[in-house]
Design a protein that fits this description.
Keywords: Membrane, Transmembrane, Transmembrane helix. The protein has 667 residues and is an alpha/beta fold.
């Protein structure tokens, strides 16, 4: 049966309408998917920008910590102990520092509010840091216009405790919000010349936002408690320190300079308050610093607080070069004779500074008296009035006990009087009685000793108000030990100290000598026994430390190649060889320790590289002094330093070292 044409037309219309409906549905779905994708893309972009903003905030906190490390790396304080104590008291919020024992807490600080202050001007709580880091250091760090008020605001904000200060930022329609501050905890007195401000580096949490999207970034610091160490550094931590880099005042007046040559091999820190002169290829295994004070300028025009006369630079084979004219760079300067084309490949003058060099370092003035050592000796050491004709230090055995002997002879009353003392690891003094027995020694009010109880304790300091005519190792002079394994000693005298024998440690930290290899490199002497505890300091505050060579002005047991294990210091004079320019060559003085002196004392004479008279120098620095082991009450620098420490380790670049955690926010 044939379908009517009208019915067929209706079916076709229905089919077309159905197809159009399906197409409309497909187009609608497609449009929704496209719109959703566009919305998703916009949301994702906002989320990413919020994430980047949050990470920028965390980076800003990290940058502030790095700036802090850099600023503290240049910190120093004037030689004004009273002002330092006043600033420390103000940091505690006190009018004056309370009297506390070494190792005790001076004050606790509020970790919530920190050292922050809402007032204008200089916040007294951070005045010590304002004084320690000057405007130029801030300028070098990129902080311009760093007036005392600006510096005060920086340190106040930095140590603002858990309340912190806002460090918000915005750019390109996104921003971050973070409050941050270090948490100060306490001020601790380590000693009369060292204090610590302890603080924590807290975690940081930053919220980033872009439109309606937010993201939070948290960085765990994982840093231990850090310390700001405010201290007068011990002068024992130098291999060589010279105030005047000349043999004498006469040499300085005539411009007759000390020259470091290819024979110069120093393994520890070397500093002068003046300017060095180099010839050949001297090697310095430690940091080298120079204050740059020209000859004749030390004092009013070049000192610890003002360096108006300073000329940062050095002499190379007699030619002065300022820092700006050193080639190829101040960090690795060389010098060639004019017209010497071959010199470029192997310069005539090429000092080696593997640990760095600073030509514009602060002046480090030397103390000019031994008052601190005398006070320590009177309180708990051995204080000797008048000259000492002989003082012997040597290891011995008394009653089966390993002891340090201290024997000295005085003649203040016209008749020589010898006192024989000894102490063991317990640091209790014993005395050789007239009957030949060893008995406990008690300290008399006048500083002398007599048999009696209880036994006096010994703090390691011997002070002589006069000269020491012969410092020697007694019966151990030929080959034995002058300093017992457990002994830490400082001998200080107001006059000259004449060394007349070898002075050896029973347990030396180092051995051998630095060696110049055929290729020009240097192999330092091995220092592998760094747990050794014996140490000796020798300090002549107003006189010289003289090594008495054979055939000289007085009897001596010093011979060829003597061994001297000690840190030697002459505050107003020099460490030198008596009669250095007479007689014959006697080998090298084999020193383990360091030399600190007002003038660079002469040891011998040379012709070219050939020793003619006296001794040459084989100086091996004692690295234990950089790790905190020093002779007891050894002189400290007059200036105070402020440095950042992680435990016992200097910290120059504090970082947030923990994990970064990103948590989702609002899309």
């Amino acid at each position: 049966m044939r379908t009517p044409e009208r019915t067929q037309g209706a079916t076709l219309i229905v089919s077309l309408l159905f197809v159009m409906l399906i197409l409309a549905v497909i187009m609608s779905v497609t449009a929704q998917v496209t719109l959703s994708a566009r919305r998703s893309s916009v949301d994702q972009d906002a989320i990413l920008r919020a994430q980047f903003a949050a990470e920028s905030g965390a980076a800003r906190v990290q940058a502030r910590l790095r700036v802090m490390g850099g600023l503290l790396g240049s910190a120093s304080l004037p030689p004004d102990g009273a002002q330092v104590m006043s600033d420390l008291a103000a940091l505690c919020g006190l009018g004056s520092l309370p009297t506390v024992a070494d190792g005790a807490t001076v004050c606790t600080l509020n970790p919530t509010t920190g050292l922050n202050s809402a007032g204008s001007g200089v916040n007294p709580r951070v005045a010590l840091l304002v004084n320690a880091v000057g405007q130029q250091a801030f300028e070098d760090a990129g902080i311009s216009g760093a007036t005392p008020e600006v510096r005060s605001r920086f340190w106040s904000d930095l140590f603002s405790g858990t309340q912190g200060v806002p460090l918000d930022g915005a750019q390109d329609a996104s921003g971050y919000a973070v409050r941050y501050g270090l948490k100060p905890l306490a001020v601790i007195r380590d000693s009369a010349t060292q204090y610590r401000v302890t603080f924590e580096v807290p975690d940081v949490t930053v919220t980033g936002s872009a439109g309606t999207a937010t993201r939070t970034v948290a960085v765990r610091s994982n840093l231990p408690t850090l310390s700001l160490l405010i201290a007068q550094p011990s002068l024992a931590q130098f291999a060589l320190l010279t105030n005047h880099h000349f043999n004498s005042a006469a040499s300085e007046g005539s411009g007759n300079r000390i020259t470091f040559t290819s024979r110069t091999l120093f393994s520890g820190p070397v500093h002068t308050n003046q300017q060095f002169m180099f010839q050949g290829k001297p090697w310095f295994g430690g940091a080298v610093t120079s204050a740059g004070c020209p000859a004749g300028s030390l004092g009013p025009s070049c000192n610890a607080t003002s360096k108006a006369a300073a000329q940062p630079g050095a002499y190379f084979a007699g030619t002065y070069r300022s820092v700006g004219s050193m080639t190829p760079s101040p960090d690795a300067p060389t010098e060639c004779a004019p017209g010497d084309a071959a010199c470029a490949a192997s310069p005539n003058v090429q000092p080696s500074f593997p640990q760095g060099v600073d030509w514009d370092s602060p002046v480090l003035p030397l103390p000019t008296n031994s008052n601190n050592q005398q006070g320590a000796a009177q309180a708990g050491g051995i204080a000797i009035a008048g000259n000492v004709s002989s003082l012997s230090l040597y290891r011995d055995t008394v009653g089966g006990q390993d002891v340090q002997r201290v024997s000295f002879t005085t003649d203040a009353g016209g008749t020589p009087v010898t006192t024989e003392l000894a102490f063991g690891a317990d640091r209790l003094l014993r005395i050789l009685a007239p009957d030949g027995s060893w008995q406990d020694a008690t300290r008399n009010p006048d500083g002398t000793f007599a048999p009696g109880s209880p036994a006096a304790t010994f703090n390691g300091v011997i002070h002589v108000a006069g000269d020491v005519g012969s410092l020697n190792a007694g019966p151990n002079a030929a080959s034995g030990a002058a300093v017992a394994p457990f002994a830490g000693l400082t001998l200080a005298a107001t006059g000259d100290i004449d060394i007349t024998s070898d002075l050896r440690y029973a347990d030396p930290p180092c051995s051998g000598a630095h060696t110049r290899n055929p290729d020009g490199t240097v192999t330092p002497a091995p220092c592998t026994n760094l747990n050794a505890q014996n140490i000796l300091g020798i300090y002549a505050s107003e006189g010289d430390v003289n090594l008495i060579r054979p055939g000289g002005s007085k009897p001596t047991q010093l011979g060829n190649d003597p061994a001297i294990h000690a840190v030697l210091m002459a505050g107003q004079g020099a460490v030198q060889v008596d009669g250095y320019n007479t007689g014959s060559a006697l080998g090298s003085v084999n020193l383990i320790g360091g030399v600190i002196e007002n003038y660079y004392g002469a040891f011998g004479t040379t012709s070219g590289d050939v020793q003619q008279t006296g001794y040459s120098r084989n100086f091996v620095f004692d690295p234990r002094t950089l790790a905190g082991l020093r002779p007891p009450y050894f002189p400290t620098a007059e200036t105070w330093t402020v440095a950042l420490y992680d435990g016992a380790t200097p910290l120059t670049d504090p970082r947030l070292r923990g994990d970064t955690i990103s948590t989702a926010g609002t899309p």
